[in-house]
């Protein structure tokens, strides 16, 4: 089995696409006005409009109502990313901080309130752990 994507359901696809294009530096593919994909080397971040939910089953998802998922991106220079994004991100949860598990991370919210974590392995153990993942 291969992990393929994470999909965010939103009422404003264009707003989230612009936000994640800025965060990732990747241009989204837009196969339909109600759907977009940001295809990264390790995974795809999909963004679907609330109108797409009935295709999966009525009431199967709710827009902008996430309280348990963190969308994470590994980066090469967390402090550089912070400088690049600090004027663009509206809601910061945590500025760059080294975590007990060896990653230097920062957390912020996207326009729908979803938590986003950018992190960089910085300790020898964390660097080794991620070097095995590719």
From TrEMBL:
One example of a Gene Ontology biological process annotation: L-methylmalonyl-CoA metabolic process
Keywords: Metal-binding
Gene3D superfamilies tied to this protein: 2,3-Dihydroxybiphenyl 1,2-Dioxygenase, domain 1
InterPro entries: Glyas_Bleomycin-R_OHBP_Dase, Glyas_Fos-R_dOase_dom, MMCE/EMCE_epimerase, VOC_core
Signal peptide: none
Domain VOC: 2-121
GO molecular function, one term: metal ion binding
Protein's recorded name: Glyoxalase
């Amino acid at each position: 089995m291969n992990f393929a994507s994470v999909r965010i359901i939103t009422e404003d696809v264009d707003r989230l696409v612009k936000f994640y294009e800025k965060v990732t530096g990747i241009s989204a593919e837009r196969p339909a006005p109600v759907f977009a994909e940001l295809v990264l080397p390790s995974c795809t971040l999909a963004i679907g409009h609330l109108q797409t939910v009935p295709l999966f089953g009525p009431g199967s998802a709710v827009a902008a109502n996430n309280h348990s998922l963190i969308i994470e991106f590994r980066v090469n220079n967390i402090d550089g990313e912070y400088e690049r994004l600090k004027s663009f991100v509206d809601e910061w949860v945590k500025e760059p901080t080294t975590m007990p598990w060896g990653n230097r991370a920062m957390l912020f919210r996207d326009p729908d309130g979803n938590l986003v974590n950018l992190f960089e392995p910085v300790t020898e153990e964390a660097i080794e752990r991620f070097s095995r993942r590719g």
